[in-house]
Amino acid sequence: MRNSFTLLCLFCLFLTGCVSESYFQSPMHSNNSSYKTIPMHSDSIGSATYIGGNFFPGFANHRLRDTYFGGNASLFRSHNFGNFQGYYGLNATVGQYRVNYNKDIDGDLQTSPYFKQGDHFFGAVGGTGGINVVSPFRKGEWRVLGAELSYQQEFGDYYKFRNKLPDSAVRYVDKRDHYFTWGLNTEILGDVGKSWLLGYKAAYIMNLHTLRSYQSGNRLHPAYFSQTIHLSHLNTTGYVQMNAGTRVLSLHFGVNYRLGR
Would residue 36 count as lying in a domain? Predict the structure, then answer.
């Protein structure tokens, strides 16, 4: 009996000494690159200005146990020139991130004040710009290869929460207040009749900063894969975008509206 009690105590000490299997990243991870509408070459629109908005529910952290939701508003401009297209613009994002815990042996320090469960407000302002190589075809075009850069400046309670987390207690934590990415993409779209356009875009987006594990010294390079289906009619484009990557999954439901040329 005495030996069993000793083993039980040692087991409990082992659990409390474990590093939490947690990945507290920027909420902009998978939410910084919403779909940007660009008129087709066949529309003979050299330049256009758009406003856009979307809302996004999502999951993050180890086993996608945390949840969040938010919204994004943007103002951007697009251009057609030769076999190229370009776009650039500004955006603002706000949302709420909920920290949750599983009741298992992941090593979560559930009684620690650093790991307070609950909701944390987040926000960001930033800009995005990109360029595409375009190959037109009958009633459509293939945007063969595109490149994009995005910069987001974060603020809010969730950023403060991450900064208070001790490096020795979690697997990875992003304590930066900015989120900087590059991405590659391809897109195809075409006329489906009566001024309707249908398209599909796939993109791979990577954080330019790596995250370092305090315990192992290993580095994590967060990235995500994005897929968007969009439908346009006259000046309005609606889209659904799914983003999945490093400990993250989100869905975007949005609309872009063309203000003028």
Answer: yes
Q: Is residue 10 domain-resident?
A: no
- Taking Cα atoms as reference points, which of 72, 21, 38 lies closest to residue 141? 38
Q: What is the pLDDT of residues 165-205, one digit of tens each?
A: 888 878 899 999 999 999 999 999 999 988 899 999 999 99
Q: In which domain, by residue range, is 107 found?
A: 24-260
* ∠ CA 119-175-126, rounded to 5°: 80
Domain count, the chain: 1
CATH number, domain of 114, equals: 2.40.128
Q: What is the pLDDT at residue 19? A: 52
Between CA 85 and CA 136 the distance in angstroms is 12
Residue 167 has φ and ψ, to the nearest 5°, of -60, -30
Distance CA 185, CA 167 (A): 34
